[in-house]
Amino acid sequence: MIARAFRQLAILLGLALLPAIVSAALQLQWNREEPLAAGEVRIAMAREWGDKAIWVDARSRAKFEKRHIPGAVLLNEDEWDKLVGPFLDAWDPDKEIVVYCDGGGCEASTAVANRMRDELRIGNVHVLKGGWNAWLGK
Amino acid sequence: MAGKVILLALRAALAWIFLKAGMLKIWDFAHWRSATPDFTLAIQHYQIVPWPDLTMLLAVYLPWLEVITALALFTRRLRLGAITLFSGLTIVFLGALGSAWHRGLDISCGCFGKDEVSTDFPAMLTRDLCILASLTVLLAVEWRRLRRASASSQGVTQ
């Protein structure tokens, strides 16, 4: 009976492999070919800016304090009123602003970037394509 | 008869839970895009898997395993394996949740895609213990069914 269970288990593990392999191949293709939306920047370009970029973390304070891009400034929607002052102190109009959040389907960075453009009238704001995942190299 | 209906309902409920969990980790239907990056992130947040490549492999493979195994719950030939596999996965996941809770991690479960943001560990652990209890019942029933089938087939051959 135990042998039967393990045999069936092995069959299931094998059956799941095929769609997983196809999924992985598609995932790799999408990661390579996904075009940039307006206002987005890829990690390679953002890294090239070096000191000419100011990184803005749009995630929660807990995530920011756990780990963030070195030198990044926290500015999220939840604490916008409290954090916008320190951000403006760090802001330099000659530098590019790169806003990031978790990556994948996260929309916090887009929301913060839009508020910067609309409320703070900052034009050179970019959203990091892939967010924190992209920084980690995923 | 009532017992059979209850068991069928239990299997259907568990299959639905795992099928939904798997599908939501494969595809983000709200934004119509792959959910693999979000699930990769959810696994990373547990800080258990040390290798990034393995995290990504798990993020691709586990959801499909959930979907295929959920469907297998309705087949006689693979039902025992499906229940065994889900029991093992649930135990592993309970361990991961318990570990995250013990370490004070503020994470989302990642069980049902990126929109599940709860970090209510007691609730999540209770939910998964109920799932494990249901799987244990199904395992016991399936075991008994197969033993009877095996005994009766031996009786026929004798």
Compact summary:
The complex is a heterodimer of chains A (138) and B (158). With 138 residues, chain A is an alpha/beta fold.
> Outline of chain A, from the CA principal axes?
elongated
Elements of chain A, N to C (H/E): HEHEHEHEHEH
Which pair of chains forms the biggest interface, and how many residues does each contribute?
A-B, 33 and 37 residues
Within the largest sheet of chain B, what's the order of strands? 1-2
Largest sheet of chain A, in brief, is: 5 strands, parallel
Task: Enumerate the spans of chain A where pLDDT stays under 50 for 5 or more consecutive residues.
Answer: none
How many extended strands of chain A? 5
Report the structural category of chain A: alpha/beta
Search tags:
heterodimer; A: 138 residues; alpha/beta; five-stranded parallel sheet; 54% helix; elongated; B: 158 residues; mainly alpha; two-stranded antiparallel sheet; 5 helices; 3% strand
Write the layout of secondary structure elements.
The complex is a heterodimer of chains A (138) and B (158).
Chain A: H1 2-33, E1 40-41, H2 43-49, E2 53-57, H3 61-66, E3 73-74, H4 80-90, E4 96-100, H5 108-119, E5 125-128, H6 131-136
Parallel strand pairs in A: 1-5, 2-3, 2-4, 4-5
Chain B: H1 2-26, E1 27-28, E2 33-34, H2 36-45, H3 52-72, H4 79-102, H5 121-157
Antiparallel strand pairs in B: 1-2
Helix pairs in contact in B: 1-3, 1-5, 2-3, 3-4, 4-5
What does this structure look like?
The complex is a heterodimer of chains A (138) and B (158). With 138 residues, chain A is of the alpha/beta class. Chain A is 54% helix and 13% strand. Chain A is built from six helices and five strands; from the N terminus they run H-E-H-E-H-E-H-E-H-E-H. Chain A has helices at residues 2-33, 43-49, 61-66, 80-90, 108-119, 131-136; strands at 40-41, 53-57, 73-74, 96-100, 125-128. A five-stranded parallel sheet of chain A has the order 1-5-4-2-3. Chain B is mostly helical and 158 residues long. Chain B has one domain (2-149). In chain B, 74% of the residues lie in helices and 3% in strands. In chain B, strand 1 and strand 2 (33-34) form a beta hairpin. The radius of gyration of chain B is 18 Å and the shape is elongated. Chains A and B meet through helix 1 and helix 6 of A and strand 2, helix 2, helix 3, helix 4 and helix 5 of B.
